[in-house]
Amino acid sequence: MLTRPRDREVTCHASAWVVDSDKDVRLKVCLHQTADDFRTVHHELGHVYYFLSYRTQPPSFRGGANDGFHEAIGDSIALSITPEYLKRIGLIQQIPPTQADLPLLLHTALDKIAFLPFGLLIDKWRWEVFSGKVKPADYNRAWWELREEYQGVAPPVNRSETDFDPGAKYHIPDNTPYVRYFLAAIYQFQFYRAMCQASGYTGPLNRCSFFESKEAGARLRAMLKLGQSKPWPEAMRVMTGEDKADASAMVEYFEPLLKWLKEQNRGESLAWTVNANPLLSK
User: Fold this and answer.
1) Disulfide: which of 31, 108, 142, 146 matches 121 by Cβ 3.0-4.6 Å?
2) Rounded to 5 degrees, what are φ and ψ at 19?
3) Which residues of 76-92 are buried (b: 16+ CB within 10 A; e: fewer)?
């Protein structure tokens, strides 16, 4: 399913499926001709190619090295959607100059960097609920306290325990662990840098496209076909030469933007004070 059916209600939350644990792979998405959906397709196809790569493993090993790996694959390939790549496939006519990178990097950072605290706090809330540290009478208060601590945001109107704001996030009522997305936000830049290195690219990381690089593809496939047959640090080493999560690739990718932001924010306070919020009541 690639578009919303006209004859019935469906859940359009994008997902990828392997139906027969072999070659019957499918996408369930409701696509539009937008840049966001272009990236969504890359993300979901990352799952699909992982399914196909580890399908020859014993059933117990048919899965990502850890859940973060599965979520990172398609996004790491989507990072290779650079202006040079878009020109090569005929979607744009001219490659923008390097000074045009800043708006694009800022847009990407608002997606990737701003996501990190949210990606972490969702499972922090879930874990505290499951452990009993947060009681039912404080579910909503605990949610907004984490939102304030990690994101610096507060509810716009009065909230109480008659509200259940965490439930507005699909993965909470669906009981889908979320730290996988936090880890994937870091892994994807590691994977991307590794494939750029394998392709022989030496320029600014944010300008790299490994399109049509057999060497980058071989590096990726060597990791994908392992599935869960090796501990995730060993799968990471096959892909990147490293055996732990490392955010330095993310920092390198955003280096031009980081340099510009430091200059723009010179003399500004870059933090917030966490206080008891008057909009949260019992």
Assistant:
1) 146
2) -80, -40
3) bbbbbbbbebbeeeeee
- For residue 280, being part of any structural domain is answered with no
Least Cα distance to 224 among 119, 76, 17, 81 occurs for 76
What gap in Å lies between CA 28 and CA 38, rounded to an integer? 14
**Alpha-carbon separation of residue 51 from 18, 62, 280 (angstroms):** 7, 7, 44
123-145 pLDDT, tens digit per residue, is 999 999 999 999 999 999 999 99
Kindly report the average pLDDT of the chain as a whole number. 93
Would 225 be classed as within a structural domain?
yes
Which band of pLDDT confidence, cut at 50, 70 and 90, is reported for residue 281?
A: low
User: What span, in angstroms and rounded, lies between the C-alpha atoms of 40 and 81?
Assistant: 12
CB 27 within 8 A of CB 14: yes
Interior CA angle at 124 toward 123 and 128, to 5°? Answer: 110
Identify the CA nearest to 227 among candidates 68, 17, 71, 56.
56
For the segment 4-16, the average pLDDT, to the nearest whole number, is 92
Whether residue 53 is contained in a domain is answered as yes
**What are the structure tokens assigned to 209, written together?**
């496209």
Say which DSSP state 167 is in.
G
Strand-pairing partners, residue 280, are: 159
Residue with tokens 């949260």: 280
Q: Tens digit of pLDDT for each residue in 171-204?
A: 999 999 999 999 999 999 999 999 999 999 999 9
Residue 97 identity (one-letter amino acid): P
The pTM of this model reads 0.90
Q: How many domains in the chain?
A: 1
Asked whether 17 and 25 are in contact (CB, 8 A), the reply is yes
**Coil/strand/helix, residue 153:** coil
The whole domain housing 188 covers 36-97+179-246
Q: Which amino acid is at 117?
A: P
Q: What does the angle CA 72 – CA 28 – CA 46 come to, to the nearest 5 degrees?
A: 20
Q: State the amino acid at position 123 in one-letter form.
A: D
